[in-house]
Amino acid sequence: MTGRAPPNAPRGARGAAAPALAKLAAARTRLVLERPFVGALVLHLPLVPSAACRTVATDGRGFHFNPTFIDRLDFAGTQFVLAHEALHCALLHFDRARHRVRGRWDRACDYAVNQLLVDDGMRAPAGVLLDPALRGLAAEEIYPLLDDASDERPLDEHWFGASVASPPAAAGAGDPAAPVAPGLLDAHRDGFDEVLARAPFVASEHPAATLAAEWRDRLAGAGLEAAAAGRLGTVFRRVLDSLVQPRLPWHALLARFLVTIARDDYSFQRPSRREGDAILPGLASGETNLALALDTSGSISAHDFGAFVGEIDALKGQIRARVTLLACDAALAPGAPWRFEPWERLEVPPGLTGGGGTRFTPVFQWLDAEAVRPDALLYFTDALGEFPERAPEYPVLWLVKGNAPVPWGERVQLN
Predict the structure, then answer these.
(1) CA-based torsion, 64, 70, 73, 74: positive or negative
(2) What is the distance between the alpha carbons of residues 166 and 58, in angstroms, rounded to a whole number?
(3) 118 lies in the same domain as 232
(4) Helices then strands (H, E): number in the chain?
């Protein structure tokens, strides 16, 4: 992992990249000494100068850079871009995109990585995507909060995977420092793997699954070593905890919550005289009274409401839940409440509108006035509003779209 250009690079290319390579090597050494967790990850990315790269890039196998761009960065910015590319790899952003729109996914990954590095005390260069409101969110949670129509773009380039089964031959194939054929890189900018075009054998030796497994091991190893040395910061300790113990999908957490409140339990109540004198345990079943509240303040779409209510409908029959549906922005919606028996299909009321401010208090006031206390309340919201001062006696599950906290109750991330 030296800072020298690849030995088969043209002599002119090695000479032109020498100052940038020296700068990157020094920045990498400083990272290893000052931030051993990130530094250990950076060491797994060989430094590859590339005139085809606009700024910096990674394909999961190397740190590709434009020497001119590196020359313009100060030393802190150079450390930042090295750490940035290493975290893309260690967090498996090349393996987690799945069906998502590539440009939007790339921006979500950059927001997540940049905030982690800034929170860890690193100084970001100008032009990176950064929003403190997204602090603590994973790329999957940031992705639905971004606009496809936005013209913002990551500072770096993500060369994850090949967008074609057999990449066309490039001029200088096999030479990592040779420029790619004109137009080829631009045609595959969202997912083109430059190394794959130049040396096709790399793909067979390092398929995506193998590469992901390697980076999981590297992440775990770097974390263990830094923790053993007492050099693992709080920010990355939380990241490692979330990867070692990943959060369940909200559907699974919702199902688990509903099962715990289902009114099925064993009863030792004395039976009638006709059944004898013995007192044996029996299964006592009853309907669950479930309250469901929708935040209609305008921050959540009708599509989101439909998906959420559909999930409740699929589960309520299993626990024999009678559902009282409420909708509220600053006040309860006209026509509320709507009641559904366990055998009735749960649907979003037609013409449901809102858009005012957000207050959660009216829902709790209405439930307090009811003669029958609910077994639980599920509140679908962005959690940006006025909460009651005290928690009620019944369980509350907040299903939150966004990253706002709740003062009490159980919170499930909905994104």
Answers:
(1) positive
(2) 20
(3) yes
(4) 14, 12
CA distance to 70, 101, 185, 376, per residue, from 192 (Å): 22, 15, 7, 49
Q: Where are the beta strands (DSSP E) in 5-136?
A: 47-49, 56-58, 63-65
Number of domains in the chain: 2
127 and 50 in one domain?
yes
Is 159 within 8 Å of 193 (Cβ atoms)?
yes
Residue in this structure with the two tokens 């709790």, named with its chain if needed: 364
Residue 287 within any structural domain of the chain: yes
For 291, the 3-state DSSP assignment is: strand
- Residue carrying the six token digits 């075009």: 197
Show which of 229, 244, 259 is a domain's final residue: 244
Same-domain pairing of 400 and 330: yes
Q: Are residues 239 and 258 in the same domain?
A: no
Q: How far apart are CA 284 and CA 263, in angstroms?
A: 8
From residue 231, alpha-carbon distances to 26, 79, 83 in Å are 20, 18, 16
Q: How many CA atoms lie within 13 A of 344 on its CB side?
A: 11
Structural domain range at position 332 = 250-413
Query: Does any domain span residue 6?
Result: no
- The Cα-based distances of 330 to 146, 204, 327, 335, 370 in angstroms read 26, 58, 10, 15, 20
Give the mean pLDDT per block of 10 residues along the chain (415 residues). 45 71 96 94 94 92 94 96 96 87 92 95 94 89 87 90 35 36 39 35 54 87 83 84 60 75 50 51 64 83 79 78 89 89 86 74 93 88 90 91 86 77
**Entry pTM:** 0.53
Place of tokens 């982690």: 116
User: Based on the domain organization, do 158 and 283 belong to the same domain?
Assistant: no
Burial environment of residue 35 by CB neighbours within 10 A (0 to 12, 13 to 18, 19 or more): buried
